Amino acid sequence: RIFFTADDGQHGTELWVSDGSSDGTHMLKDINLGSGSGTVGPFVPLGDHIYFAADDGVNGGQLWRSDGTEAGTVPFLDIENTTGLTSGDQFTFFDDKIYFRGGTDAEGRELWVTDGTVDGTHLLKDINAGIPESSPNDFAVFGDKLYFAAKTVDDGEELWATDGTEEGTVQVMDIRPGTGSSSPGDLVAASGLLFFAAN
């Protein structure tokens, strides 16, 4: 089956599923009941579930998961961020886990990881220490690491990489020395190299 978002004109943008046939294409769950949109996505598979961000209209953006059934489409974890998770929070599969941009009031939006368990869902590293956020984005898997852009007070937004550990989450290079940002983006791996745009 394929999972996707759609708006039927009555329920807002919600989670849909299709087995490739007209009869087998339907809304899986009306997460934000009524005409409100659940703002679901993007969908990343892990084990027997897909994981995604969704907003039920009451609790804000949370981490959800689905086993492909309506009853099995449920909130997985509320990270208690004042702004909540959104469909733009860069969900990326790497090394049997899902990495994403999550947040709390204490750390701001930082690099989070989940292995599909509640205990295994946590902040990987507070890159921009304290309340100021690093806002990691533009994830790309290259070799045995996950690369992304992140910002700090001292170096601005630069190229970072993680091997999945806190100590192995490091800045690759301060491309624009000082507090200015090189703003790396459009990361893509090809021909044994990692390509990206930067200033």
Q: What's the gist of this structure?
A:
With about 200 residues, the chain is mainly beta.
Please tell me about this protein's structure.
Strand 16 and strand 17 form a beta hairpin. The chain is built from no helices and 17 strands. Strands 4-5-6-7 form a four-stranded antiparallel sheet, with no helix packed on it. It has strands spanning 2-7, 13-18, 25-29, 41-46, 49-55, 61-66, 73-77, 92-94, 97-104, 108-114, 122-125, 137-142, 145-152, 156-162, 169-173, 185-190, 193-197. The mean pLDDT is 93. The protein starts with a strand and ends with a strand. By secondary structure, the protein is an all-beta fold.
Q: What are the key terms here?
A:
single chain; 17 strands; four-stranded antiparallel β-sheet; mainly beta
Note the total helix count.
Answer: 0
Order of helices and strands: EEEEEEEEEEEEEEEEE
**Biggest β-sheet description:** 4 strands, antiparallel
> What's the number of extended β-strand segments?
17
Question: What is the topology, as strand order, of the major beta sheet?
Answer: 4-5-6-7
Low-confidence stretches: none
Distance between the termini: 41 Å
Helix content: under 10%
Give the averaged pLDDT, no decimals. Answer: 93
Computed over alpha carbons, the radius of gyration is 18 Å
List the helices and strands and how they pair.
Blueprint: E1 2-7, E2 13-18, E3 25-29, E4 41-46, E5 49-55, E6 61-66, E7 73-77, E8 92-94, E9 97-104, E10 108-114, E11 122-125, E12 137-142, E13 145-152, E14 156-162, E15 169-173, E16 185-190, E17 193-197
Antiparallel strand pairs: 1-2, 2-3, 4-5, 5-6, 6-7, 8-9, 9-10, 10-11, 12-13, 13-14, 14-15, 16-17
